[in-house]
Amino acid sequence: MSDRLLAVDDLTVSFSSDAGRVQVLDHVTFAMSRGEIVGLVGESGSGKTTLARAILGILPANAAHIESGGIRFEGEDLLQADPADIATRVRGRTITFVPQDPFTSFNPVFTIGSQIMELMKWKSPLAPPSSGLSRYARTRRKADRVKVIELLKTVQLPDPEAMLAKYPHEVSGGQRQRLMIAMALMTDPKLIIADEPTTALDVTIQAQILKLLRQLTRERGVSVLFTTHDLGAAHEICDRICVLYAGQEVETAPAGRFFAHPSHPYTRSLLDSLPSREHGIRGIRGEIPALVNPPAGCRFHPRCDRATGECSALRPSETAVGDLHTLRCYHPLSQPEPASAAS
User: Fold this and answer.
1) Would you call 18 exposed, middle or buried from its count of C-beta atoms within 10 A (0-12, 13-18, 19+)?
2) 91 Cα distance to chain centroid
């Protein structure tokens, strides 16, 4: 892949629990280019948020264990770098985050403006990348505030000056999510990780937020890692899609090919589970396995109609089936039919 920005290679993450070691990510590998919007999709519990948090370096230190692999951002392995240096130089600057729930993203006892300016004090492009910074020079604060107001206008928030004086409870959920997008862009990042950013919003506002996010990232050349269980949202915004199942990546494909010609049985099942007039609502038989003792080999094999003995013996290696289209499956769909989600 040309002009690679992020590469996750053979990443394995587990968590300690009372029931034993929870194997949340199992040798996950994927990459993304500059200016690309990549969707991480899959059922709840597939490992999407854990992968996003591993990239950000915010996994809980007392419970999470990175057992193998690397996360290379602009050629630098973030897992081998000094955590304090990454926290100062990368997280919140070149990699930013749009959270899932805009209702809990702000402290309710401080104004929106005070919280945004606190972010700019430490993470503004004008701020020196040093954890020892203590004072906020008046000239830099003034320049940062001008940038904040311009960005609030860019994300189509009315009367930015008045918005900064409000408390979080005084603005709607859609406005809060626009604020989150603006804050993610304020540090001129190269990668934004958006963790299901439209889940808490109604359908109309979702469409507006997706359109805005795609437009702004295109204009600024920012890459986006977009985690979601909503295939409709992925269809609207993503250039390429990576499918996770029970902590394993099973298929990665350009969005058009993903929806029109899925190759992995799980991908096909995901698309078939979308409601339609023809078959109504239907799910995927069985359940996601418990990750304390997950199935060997391909973790989807207990629910797969095409599974054979080799599927449970060893996880399939990655196979290229087209331009930027890879999958891990011993028995892919040989004659894929257009998926109903494409419409």
Assistant:
1) exposed
2) 15
State mean pLDDT over 51-60: 94
Residue 133's pLDDT band, with cuts at 50, 70 and 90, is low
- Mean of the per-residue pLDDT values of the chain: 90
pLDDT number for residue 338: 46
Question: Domains of the chain: which residue ranges?
Answer: 4-242
Question: In terms of Cα–Cα distance, which of 43, 5, 33, 39 is closest to 256?
Answer: 39
Sequence-distant (≥ 6) Cβ neighbours of residue 110 within 8 angstroms: 167
Cα 65 to Cα 18, 21, 122, 272: the distances in Å are 15, 10, 29, 35
Quickly tell me which residue has 């100062």 as its tokens. 88
Q: What is the value of pTM for the model shown? A: 0.90
Query: Which fold is adopted by the domain 4-242?
Result: Rossmann fold (3.40.50)
Amino acid at 2: S
